[in-house]
Write a structure and sequence with these properties.
Layout: H1 2-23, H2 32-58, E1 68-69, E2 74-75, H3 78-109, H4 114-145, H5 149-166, H6 178-186, E3 199-201, H7 205-208, H8 221-225, E4 231-233, H9 235-258, H10 265-277, H11 279-286, H12 296-312, H13 314-321, H14 325-353
Antiparallel strand pairs: 1-2, 3-4
Helix pairs in contact: 2-3, 2-10, 2-11, 3-9, 3-10, 3-11, 3-12, 3-14, 4-9, 4-10, 5-12, 12-14
């Protein structure tokens, strides 16, 4: 079983190395066309991996499919494992859409040029993978010993859904974020970007000259006052920190949500990883038209509500729907998300027709 984890982690590291070390070695602006192509690539890879999941659990490769899943009390077959993997993938992918709005707001606040946004998202997602792995391991351990925690997760998701539906669309000022205020108060932070650097050294050429196209000199009072040789954080580093912090907040919703589907750590982790890996390209594909999806937040709230109810009524639903419970759950989630997108686009089109 350990070899499956090692093999998957090596696969992920290879994909990330190819991404940053080959395809995006030099900073460049990602076009919508390229972003859509990469989104298709990541989705295809996630679907291809579901074939491995099916055969792995069906044939019990290296211990897969030999233990009881605490959520439904059944041993996962190839079919049930694949269904849980795909449902977890869709749930994580859909809930991460809300994070895209926050990322876009952060990039706007820190005036991060599009040419450097991919670098921030790359390292942000790498940190998110480590964070998710830790949270998943803790969640699986808790559920295996205290199954009643699933009911707490269900209540929490329902409350989160209600708060999401009732919350106003007004964006919070990132400058008031407690993490940003802490870093700016206790750590030396430059006021201007210095190319793609997260950290610069006072007195070096990157301390005074920007790598942003145009090569303008940065009149940075903090850098000029700093002692030569002192390390300084750039606004790009602050952006990365807040991206990681926001992912932690969103993980509090998405991790409990997937425990409504399965408590198998391999299914949870792999579905989460493939969903997160495609988040960068999805951001660049949607960043220019996110304001068109006015009902996206409502549909995401309904997904959370549905998953929370499923968690609380798992035994009843199992009696009514049998082994096809997760299949119906996946279908309902897809219908909710599709409806949200269609209604948003229809509303946007109707508003454009008005004189």
């Amino acid at each position: 079983m350990a070899w499956l984890w090692v093999g998957f982690i090596i696969l992920v590291l290879m994909l990330l190395t190819l991404d940053l070390g080959f395809f995006h070695k030099k900073p460049k602006e990602i076009s919508v066309k390229e972003a859509l192509a990469w989104t298709a690539v990541w989705i295809t890879l996630g679907l291809i991996f579901s074939v491995f999941i099916f055969h792995g659990y069906e044939n019990q490769w290296m211990g897969l499919g030999r233990t009881v899943d605490p959520v439904d009390g059944l041993v996962n077959s190839g079919w049930s494992a694949t269904l849980k993997y795909l449902t977890g993938y869709v749930v994580e992918k859909s809930l991460s859409l809300d994070n895209i709005f926050v990322i876009a707001m952060l990039f706007g606040y820190f005036s991060v040029p599009k040419i450097y946004q991919h670098r921030v998202l790359f390292w942000g997602i790498l940190g998110a993978l480590l964070l998710r792995g830790t949270m998943i391991a803790a969640g699986v351990k808790l559920i295996s010993e205290f199954r009643w925690i699933l009911y707490l997760f269900g209540i929490f998701l329902i409350i989160s859904a209600i708060k999401m539906m009732c919350s106003k669309d007004e964006s919070e000022d990132p400058g008031s974020n407690v993490v940003i205020r802490f870093f700016r108060r206790f750590l030396p932070v430059t006021e201007h970007l210095h190319g793609e650097h997260f950290i610069v050294r006072a007195g070096s050429k990157h301390s005074f000259e920007s790598d942003v196209p145009g090569g303008t000199v940065c009149p940075d009072r903090i850098v000029e006052a700093a002692q030569p040789g002192r390390l300084l954080l750039t606004p790009l580093a602050l952006t990365l920190v807040i991206v990681e912090t926001s992912d932690l907040v969103f993980a509090v919703d998405s991790i409990p949500a997937i425990f409504a589907i399965t408590a198998d750590p391999y299914l949870i982790f792999t579905s989460n990883v493939f969903a997160i890996l495609g988040l960068r390209s999805l951001y660049f594909a949607l960043s220019g038209m996110m304001d068109k999806f006015c009902y996206l937040k409502t549909s995401l709230a309904l997904v959370l509500l549905l998953v929370g109810i499923k968690m609380l009524a798992a035994k009843y639903l199992k009696l009514c729907l049998g082994h096809y419970c997760n299949f119906y759950l996946l279908g309902a989630i897809l219908i909710i998300l599709t409806s949200g997108v269609v209604v948003s686009l229809w509303t946007e089109k109707g508003q454009q027709r008005k004189p």
